[in-house]
Amino acid sequence: MTTGQEPAPHEHAVVRSRDHIENVRRDALRAAARSAARTGAAPTSLITNTISWALGEGSDAPFTGTSTAEVGTAEVNNEVGACRAFLENTPWSEEADSSISRAQHVIDVLEWLTGADDCPPTYCRETEPGDLVGGRGRIVRADTEIRRMIALAKTKLAAGQTSYALGADWHQGVIATLEWTLGDQVASPVHGIARAGLPDGARIAIEQREAEDHLAAPMRRPGIPLHFADAVACTCRWLLGDTTQPPVADDD
Question: How many other C-beta atoms can be found within 10 angstroms of the C-beta atom of residue 66?
Answer without folding.
Answer: 14
